Amino acid sequence: MAELVEILKFQDARTEQDVLRAKQDDTEEDMFIFVDVMGPNFTSARLPAMAQLSRRLKNDSEIVDPPLKHHFARPRPYVRSDRVHPVCALSKEPSYPSGHAMLGYLFAYVLAQIDPEKHDAILRRADEYAHNRLVCGVHYQSDVEASRIASAILFGAMLNDPSYQHDVQAARQEWNRNKL
Questions:
Q1: Short-list 90, 108, 91, 89, CA closest to 147
Q2: Cβ count within 10 A of residue 116
Q3: Nearby residues of 138 by Cβ (< 8 Å), 6 or more positions away
């Protein structure tokens, strides 16, 4: 109930600009959500290895996300209360954990490995991306927090995978040739 109250507070406080950014993030589920941090050359057209890595990360996160959602089967805030008025796409999937937030943090951990100079800005953007799930009215804070933790665990496992390291190295080299 405390988290539902928190969602209602976010709902009451959200501005048109907050809603616009949250809706924009709602439709994006690739690494290129970080273009604001990485710069204008950070596009899938310019960075095919990065785009491939982004697809791989999304695919790998789907090994974890849906099974957890179905195991916990937590109803979304708008399902629990008709006082919650979401501004983003509705899902029939359970709420816990947030797939968007999991992806955002997973992308961030990888990008911070690729461009360590932007580490802090990358993680701030991941926090914003995750927070926008609350602004949307489609997740609780604990959904987002669980996703941050799950993505860190998934990232840790990926660090031991030679094929993952190969893909990261290819993306890093590509990025170093293209960044401003």
A1: 108
A2: 10
A3: 26, 76, 77, 78, 86, 88, 89, 90, 91, 95
Tell me: the pLDDT tens digits for 65-76? 999 999 999 999
Residue 106 Cα distances to 12, 83, 84, 100, angstroms: 30, 32, 28, 10
- Measured between alpha carbons, how far is 65 from 44 in angstroms, rounded to an integer? 24
Query: pTM for this structure?
Result: 0.94
Task: Label residue 1 by pLDDT band (50, 70, 90).
Answer: confident
DSSP 88-122: S---SS--SS-HHHHHHHHHHHHHHHH-GGGHHHH
Q: Which string of DSSP letters, residue by residue, matches 119-173? A: HHHHHHHHHHHHHHHHHHTS--HHHHHHHHHHHHHHHHHHHT-HHHHHHHHHHHH
C-alpha–C-alpha distance, residues 17 and 8, integer Å: 18
Distance between CA atoms of 150 and 105, rounded to whole angstroms?
Answer: 9
Cβ contact 128:153 at 8 Å: no
